[in-house]
């Protein structure tokens, strides 16, 4: 496996893969460690989890630089990602015992209750766009629940995978409690089928989700999927347009536009459409594209060269179908995998920018006749991950939030993940939840105990 710097296109490191025999050994080790780890009391599990948080903060500069080097996110966002990982470690160290404590249920028994016990070895198939956060939001609750974890990370961030394993090892978790499997995707079905593996979680593309879910289904194993999104950002006529436009530009271009929960379709009521369009375009034009290690950079490169071609194809097909290119719309000349921050106006259903997930700094502005039409357009997508609604009337925003097909709806705020709140989608954005009490209970056995 090799790491290639998206800002330059140059190979920066190579890593040896695990062969079939070594993979089998590591999977079996995770199962053996689980038999002891599941019996460790919560306070003892929490100690290394808190130490992992300390290491993440202490080594944040080096870990952030690694993220920048392997996938091209800006150094500022990489540092914030390391900090967020420390937060989720501390959150579950503090709350796991309460989340998974026994629940007394009054029945005809002398005593009856539900207890939450770990399932075993959980395989995580993780993406490259948030190379630390995606992993920690699975690993922190999983390890605190008493499970052990196997990580099959994206092939372009192998250094991040090994660094995360090293953080957990140095924090004091047992050897084998968390293991990075350095394997190609073709070996993932073998790991899923392995009797030592109890469950699977995946964050990634629809195609990857379908393949993993099918394999897990054949093996009758629990699976959680967090897939793509085409999040609507609904701006109603009574919204604070300056605040909405500023937030919209951030929401579209965060992580260089490569986020499942990045706002992608900006659905604006007709009376304020042109004013919003002007403000959004002006603010987008002011974004600085460049070296992701430069703290002044707003937008870095896409993670891989083929992503530039795919994004440009979506833009070209949308323009050919009638979208108006107000800004950008082409790859940046020179080394690296950069794409211009792009604004497409008058986007309608049937265009690639409306129907498909665009993974890069391309915004689709959609004109809605009124609130009813805006809601129709927001739900006119196969995805259902996140959404945001902007209005001066909070009660109106909450009402609309209940009518949008999404796992999360933020009123007058950018969609984000938070350890305190469940995270996940519906429709083709997947199923199951991560984070909060709901996330830690995904990979446990809700066991009924009845005592007569």
Short recap of the structure:
The chain has 452 residues and is α/β, with parallel strands linked by helices. Helices cover 42% and strands 20% of the residues.
Describe the model.
- The chain is α/β, with parallel strands linked by helices.
- It has 2 domains: 2-227 and 429-451, Aldehyde Dehydrogenase, Chain A, domain 1, CATH 3.40.605; 231-418, Aldehyde Dehydrogenase, Chain A, domain 2, CATH 3.40.309.
- The chain has helices at 20-37, 42-58, 60-71, 75-99, 133-144, 158-171, 188-193, 206-219, 241-253, 270-285, 305-320, 352-355, 371-379, 394-401, 436-440, and strands spanning 2-4, 11-14, 103-104, 111-118, 121-125, 148-152, 178-180, 197-203, 222-226, 231-235, 263-269, 324-327, 342-345, 362-368, 383-384, 386-390, 408-411, 426-427, 430-431, 444-451.
- α14 (394-401) links the parallel β16 (386-390) and β17 (408-411).
Oligomer: single chain
Instruction: Determine and state the CATH class of the largest domain.
Output: Alpha Beta
The largest pleated sheet is described as: 7 strands, mixed
Overall average residue pLDDT: 98
Please list the strands of the largest sheet in the order they lie side by side: 12-13-14-11-10-16-17
Radius of gyration: 22 Å
CATH names the topology of the largest domain as Aldehyde Dehydrogenase, Chain A, domain 1
Question: What is the tally of helical segments?
Answer: 15
Basic shape: globular
Low-pLDDT stretches: none
Query: What is the CATH architecture assignment of the largest domain?
Result: 3-Layer(aba) Sandwich
Domain count: the total is 2
CATH homologous superfamily designation of the largest domain: Aldehyde Dehydrogenase, Chain A, domain 1
Distance between the termini: 57 Å
* Fraction of residues in β-strands: 15-25%
Helix/strand class: alpha/beta
The overall strand count is 20
Share in helix: 40-55%
């Amino acid at each position: 496996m090799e790491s290639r710097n998206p800002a330059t296109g140059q190979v920066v490191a190579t890593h040896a893969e695990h062969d079939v025999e070594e993979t089998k050994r590591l999977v079996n080790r995770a199962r053996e460690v689980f038999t002891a780890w599941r019996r460790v009391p919560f306070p003892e599990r929490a100690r290394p989890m808190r130490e992992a948080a300390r290491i993440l903060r202490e080594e944040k500069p080096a870990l952030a630089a690694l993220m920048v080097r392997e996938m091209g996110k800006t150094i500022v966002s990489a540092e914030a990602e390391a900090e967020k990982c420390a937060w989720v470690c501390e959150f579950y160290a503090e709350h796991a015992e309460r989340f998974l404590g026994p629940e007394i249920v009054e029945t005809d028994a002398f005593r009856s209750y539900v207890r939450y016990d770990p399932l075993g070895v959980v395989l995580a198939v993780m993406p490259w766009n948030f190379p630390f956060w995606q992993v920690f939001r699975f690993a922190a609750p999983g390890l605190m629940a008493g499970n052990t974890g196997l990580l099959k990370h994206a092939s372009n961030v192998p250094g991040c995978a090994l660094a995360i394993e090293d953080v957990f090892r140095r924090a004091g978790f047992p050897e084998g409690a968390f293991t990075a499997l350095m394997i190609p995707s073709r070996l993932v079905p073998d790991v899923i089928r392995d009797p030592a593996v109890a469950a699977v979680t995946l964050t990634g593309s629809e195609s990857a989700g379908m393949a993993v879910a099918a394999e897990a289904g054949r093996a009758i194993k629990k699976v959680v999927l967090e897939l793509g999104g085409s999040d609507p950002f609904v701006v109603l006529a009574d919204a604070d347009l300056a605040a909405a436009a500023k937030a919209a530009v951030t929401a579209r271009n965060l992580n260089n536009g490569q986020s499942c929960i990045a706002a992608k379709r900006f659905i604006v009521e007709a009376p304020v459409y042109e004013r919003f369009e002007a403000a959004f375009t002006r603010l987008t034009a002011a974004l600085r594209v460049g070296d992701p290690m430069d703290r002044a950079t707003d937008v870095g490169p896409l993670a891989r060269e083929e992503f530039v071609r795919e994004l440009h194809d979506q833009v070209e097909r949308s323009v050919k179908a009638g979208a108006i290119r107000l800004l950008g719309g082409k790859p940046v000349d020179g080394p690296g995998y950069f794409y211009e921050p792009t604004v497409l106006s008058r986007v309608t259903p049937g265009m690639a920018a409306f129907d498909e997930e665009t993974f890069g700094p391309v915004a689709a502005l959609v004109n809605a006749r009124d609130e009813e039409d805006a809601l129709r357009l927001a739900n006119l997508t196969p995805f259902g991950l996140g959404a945001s609604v902007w209005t001066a009337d909070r009660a109106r925003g909450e009402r609309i939030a209940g009518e949008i097909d999404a796992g999360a709806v933020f009123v007058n705020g950018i969609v984000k993940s938070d350890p305190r709140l469940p995270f996940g989608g519906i429709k083709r954005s997947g199923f199951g939840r991560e984070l909060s009490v709901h996330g830690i209970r995904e990979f446990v056995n809700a066991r009924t105990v009845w005592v007569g």
